[in-house]
Amino acid sequence: MKTQRRALIVDDEEAARNFLRKLLAAHPEISVVAEAGSVVEAVEQFHKTNPDLVFLDVQMPKGDGFSLLPKLQPVPEIIFITAHDAFAVKAFEVNAVDYLLKPIPPDRLAMALERLARKAPRKPKPFTRDDRIFLYADLELRVVPAAQITCIQAAQNYSHVHIGGQEPVMVRRAMAEWERLLPSSAFLRVNRSTILNLNAVREILPLPHHHTSVSFTNSSATIELRRLPSRRLRKALAATAQA
User: Fold this and answer.
1) Model confidence at 229: pLDDT above 80
2) What pLDDT, on the 0 to 100 scale, is given for residue 102?
């Protein structure tokens, strides 16, 4: 018996959504729980209906399908649907189940769903430091292991993500969202504007006025902390060492 899947269809063309719905009617293991015509609507419907499968158009007004991926947690299975074949390599780089060209032939959809059926359903779980995180910046989608993130600093509704010795990446993700996403066993929000990777902290040095300078094992960058955030960091590191 095939695993039942809850699907969200994301496409800015209503006719395309209706066509896919009709094709999916021949596959009772797929239950379409919602549709969305934009990235903003897709985020809303995703969190409202909790699908484990998303049929995702690549090119839409006000944001492409790849820009949506970082907002989907826990990560669902993705089947891309598009009129263009230029993004196929990028689609498989993010572990998409398949990449279907419009108009979708029924047998090609069946093949994609058969491929999906061979995969074990993803169970919602907290991130671990070995999990990958989608970062969408400068119209580029990057997939980064959480363990490579050194620290994250707030910039209003954006954040600067420090990854090893690379230049910081600015992404549209608030600190509260990072805090929900990252594993608390490895990442600590020391103050309103800074999250640190506890496993990447190399040294904490004293500075004047009870400030401290934090350096990292995989980066030449340093972060300056005041007294209370520094105390919070030392306490967390001590607890980690005893665990």
Assistant:
1) yes
2) 93
Q: Which amino acid is at 43?
A: V
Domain that holds residue 102: 5-117
What mean pLDDT do residues 13-37 have?
96
128: number of CA atoms within 13 Å, CB side? 3
Ranges 73-77, 119-123, 165-169, 173-177: which has the least confidence: 119-123
**Residue indicated by tokens 């990057």:** 142
Is 112 among the domain residues? yes
**Mean model confidence pLDDT for the chain:** 88
Q: How far is CA 42 from CA 147, 162, 184, 193, in A?
A: 29, 28, 28, 28
59 or 191, greater pLDDT: 191
- Enumerate the β-bridge partners of residue 128: none
Q: What span, in angstroms and rounded, lies between the C-alpha atoms of 164 and 220?
A: 8
Q: What pTM does this model have?
A: 0.63
**CATH number reported for the structural domain that contains residue 228 in this entry:** 2.40.50.1020
Q: Rg of the Cα trace of the chain?
A: 21
Region 93-98: what's the mean pLDDT? 85
The conformation of residue 211, written as its DSSP 8-state character, comes to -
Residue 168 half-sphere exposure, CB side, CA atoms within 13 Å? 16
Could you say which of 79, 94, 117 is where a domain stops? Answer: 117
